[in-house]
Structures are given as structure tokens and as C-alpha cells.
Amino acid sequence: MTTLTSPHDLLTAIPFLIGYHPTDSLVLVSLSDESVGMAMRVDYPKDIHSTSAHDLIDSLVMHLVREGGDGALVIAYSPMDHHDGELFLSFVSSALNDANIQLREALLVQGGRWRSTLCHDIECCPPLGRELPEISASRIAAEQVRAGRPMPYLDSKALVDSISCLELSVDPKFLELVSVPVTSQKEGAICVIDLASRFISGAIGSDIASDQELSAKVISALRDIQVRDFALGSHSESTLQIYSMMWRYLMRIAPLGYVAPIACLMAALSYENGDGALANRCLDRAFTDEPSYSLAGLLRRVFSAGWPPESFSSMRLDLHPKVCASIFDSAHPKTVSPN
Fold it and tell me: Residue 338: what pLDDT?
């Protein structure tokens, strides 16, 4: 994330950090040596005095501690029927202080207006607040779009809709293609490489029938754990956005029973890219498709523990050569089997 130099920058950055424009939310952003780190969003509590509300605050602060943050930015998007936003922010401030984390900024947003609860200059932060800044024309938006990030979704529903199933996922002819097993892990991995190459070259969509056949092979092959783990480490920093497009597309066209592996791939890539909101929504799709899918459970624990994306990326890079050796250096092809 780019440098944040003002409350306007922070308010503009939050939708990019969590993937959509938040409402009725509490958002905490970790800082380490002035660098922006993890952003976390939770629902605004119905009762800020409840034990569950204070447990929620403590949990968020512990995530910041585990990440090694030395500072925090906090924004309360207060519901219109609440008048306790400033008090709620003071509770968060106390918890941060107890953890020796410096509160750098605390903003209260309500009814399309904002003010800083740390600023006592009524010229800068009048009691009724200032209008929220327009995101699309901001410096933050320009820098994020240049970096390949899409504009934030309007709300969480729009984010969920962006990864929901498409009509092709229930097409009997496409299901028939997907149900044909790939003969070996090596063939499955090669299909992943071939499909990625089509996305990278921009050739996807030029031959619908061929694209669907290859996509079906990849969807089928990813049910095998080794092929899935090969796919997990296949992208590089330069191809991350391309692979994101590919996994999103495959997740949306995958028939019931084939979604979980692809949703986990999309979740892992999104988390590595700093998009925790999208990562967790993808895991929701994985659990809906297969409630006991082991990788989805592992990723949920990793995300909940607040692992730095860099640590996850390092683990993936360490695993990938071993998976490649297993798939491509084996003397005998291995039959692809479902997880």
C-alpha cells in the first residue's frame, strides 16, 4: 500500500485494503516503521459495552501484536442509529495502549461524514465532520489502479457476487467435460500451465470450445492434491494478477463438487496480494462446496492468526520445487484422484 499522509488518504485507502466500501464496521490497520501492513475489518458491535465487543477488540489487538506492528490506524464506520462511536474508539485506544501499540489516527465515519477523534481543532475537524472524500479522483486510487488493483466493490454483497457461480457451472455438457478424469498428475499440471499461458497471452476467449475443454481439464485435475499444490506455487509476482483472473474464472464456472480446490487457490493468492476480505469470501465458497476440505480449514486458521502475507508466500515458494519434482521427475505417472 502507498504512503498515507493524511486522514483523506486513509479514508480513500481503506476500501482498497479490504476490497469494498465498508459500512457498520470497525477497521484496524497495522503500521510497522510507518509502513502499512495488515488491515482487519469486523462488524460494528450492537452493544459496545458487551463482553463480546471487548473480546473482539482484544482479538484484533492481538493480531497486531503478532504481526509486530508498532502503530495502528483505526476507523469506526458507525451505524446511523448509534451515538457511541467516539466511546467505542476510546475502548480500542485503551486496548492498543495496554499492548504498547501507538494509536496514530482514529476516525469516526457516520452518515457520509468523518472526523478525527484525536483532533481538537474545530476548523480541521468540526463536530459534524467533513464529507467523505471522492475515491475515484484520488492519488491513492490512481496509484492502486496503476499497480493492477481493481477499484473497490460498492459493498460486501457486490464482492460476494463477483465470485458467485456462472451459468456454465450448471451446464450438463460442461459438467460432462469436467467429469472426464485427467490421466496423470503430470498431465494435470501441464493443463494448468497451458491454460495460464492462454490467459497470459490474451488468447483466452478466442476459441470458446477449446477454452472450455481445457478449463474443464484443469478443474478436474485440481481435485488432486499434488496438482492443486503445483498450481498454488505456479504464479510469480509478475503474473499474480493474471492468475487471479484465471482462478476467479474457474471458480465461477466450476460445477458443484469441484469448487473447493479452486476457491482455496484464489483465497491463497488473494491473501498473498493483501486482499483479506476476498480471501475469506473465497474460503466461504470452498466450505459451502465441501465443508471438510482440509486446505480450506488450514487457510482459515492461517488467515485468522494474522500471518503476514510474506510468510505465506515464502512457504509456498519453498513447497513448489518439491511438488514439481514429485510430479515431473517421477519414473511412473501417478493417477489423479480426488481429495
Answer: 45
Sequence-distant (≥ 6) Cβ neighbours of residue 168 within 8 angstroms: 174, 212, 253
| DSSP-derived secondary structure for 129-196 | -EEPPPSTTSHHHHHHHHTTPPPPBSSHHHHHHTTSPPGGGG-HHHHHHHTSPPS-HHHHHHHHHHHH
Q: Which three cell numbers stand for residue 195?
A: 491454460
pLDDT digits (tens, 9 = 90+) for 123-145: 888 888 999 988 887 888 888 87
Q: Can you say how many angstroms the Cα of residue 154 is from the centroid of all Cα atoms in its chain? A: 16
How would residue 75 be classed by pLDDT, with cut points 50, 70 and 90? very high
What is the average pLDDT across 83-104? 95
The burial of 181, by beta-carbon neighbours within 10 Å (0-12 exposed, 13-18 middle, 19 or more buried), is given as: middle
DSSP for 29-92 reads EEEETTEEEEEEEEEPPS-TTSHHHHHHHHHHHHHHHHHT-SEEEEEEE--TT---HHHHHHHH
Residues carrying CATH 3.40.140, the chain: 7-150
273: three-class secondary structure by DSSP: coil
**Domain 7-150 - what CATH class?**
alpha beta
Give the Cα separation of 239 and 246 in Å (integer). 11
Beta bridge partners of 35: 32
